Fold:
Amino acid sequence: MSLTEIVSAVITLTLVMDPLGNIPLFISVLKNVKEEKRKRIIIRELFIALGLMLFFLFFGKWIVTLFSMDMVSLSVSGGIVLFLIALSMIFPSKENSIVDPKEEPFIVPLAIPLIAGPSVLSMILIYNMKDPGNIPTWFLIVIISWLINVLILSFSSKIAKFLGEKGMNAIERLMGMVLITISVQMILNGIKKFIYG
Structure:
């Protein structure tokens, strides 16, 4: 696997994990949590998400075999889920409440689905099936993407203050547009494989 392909995979996975788009959601979910406790919760949720992603990376092929899935169904379904998530980033709805603000979040919604959501796990499964003999490289890609998320989300409050509400909204919509392009490509690749397979 070339360096260009590794960098491309890291960028794609990081975009799908959407750390910048998650900043407003993290701030909203943790607004009633004290500042000193906030970072501990974010790091804990990031490690939970990493554990789930690595589980799918190492055991994904058995999950796929168990449910009789193939690359075509994974690519199309992953693309559809990613497309819907990207749409919600471009056209956000204030009616969607994902957590009770009075409770301290645990696993849901920060680790799952905000960091390790269906589109991220689908992408990791696709990586696993596309090149099952290259697990160490995919492990490195997942770790680097995760570390980028750690860096961005650890400074979420400062980044949000620096960019402001309009800046955050603009970045989230821009990320959404990029993810729509990736999702459409995933769907088209799946359809192409189905037609020629």
